[in-house]
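Page 37, continued from 36.
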């Protein structure tokens, strides 16, 4: 898969290019039981990366009349958090290789990041009302660096949460 161009979902069989608008995404997902959660955010249950079953969230920026710039991978059940974390990590490493950075994280989990020319992938757990796993792929704008937080949501959390600030520092090596 050329992650710089977009993301390939195996089931349903759909290629999602970066920077598409909401209307184009909904046309591609039509008939595949996707959910419109809120302005600029959709989800679908799917399989990708040769058997990874999970929910996939599509984030648009700006939220209204924006373009696809972030994918969020998650589950509806985290009763076996270590199993979930290892499953995500294994599938992503098989597809994208070893992470470009790794650091000690929270709750006994490592923080991982893959930095590509125009895309950054991050995988980590942080404490937000209990342990919360994050597996995200973000399209990086040309003026952004892959050593900075990957979204406005992450930027906002970084300012408010010292733990998150330390996490990003460990992920990016700065």
């Amino acid at each position: 898969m050329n992650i710089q161009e977009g993301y390939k979902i195996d089931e349903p069989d759909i290629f999602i290019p970066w920077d598409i608008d909401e209307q184009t995404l909904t046309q591609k997902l039509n008939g595949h039981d996707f959910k419109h959660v809120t302005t600029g955010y959709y989800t679908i249950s799917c399989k990708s990366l040769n058997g990874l079953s999970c929910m996939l969230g599509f984030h648009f920026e700006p939220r209204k009349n924006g373009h696809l710039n972030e994918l969020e991978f998650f589950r509806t059940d985290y009763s076996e958090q270590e199993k979930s974390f290892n499953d995500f990590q294994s599938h992503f490493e098989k597809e994208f290789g070893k992470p470009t950075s790794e650091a000690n994280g929270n709750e006994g989990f490592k923080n991982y990041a893959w930095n590509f020319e125009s895309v950054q992938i991050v995988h980590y757990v942080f404490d937000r009302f209990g342990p919360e796993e994050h597996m995200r792929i973000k399209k990086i704008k040309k003026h952004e660096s892959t050593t900075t937080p990957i979204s406005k949501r992450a930027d906002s959390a970084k300012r408010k949460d010292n733990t998150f600030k330390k996490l990003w520092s460990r992920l990016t090596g700065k």
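The first helix runs from residue 22 to 29. Flag for discussion at group meeting. The chain is about 25% helix and 40% strand.
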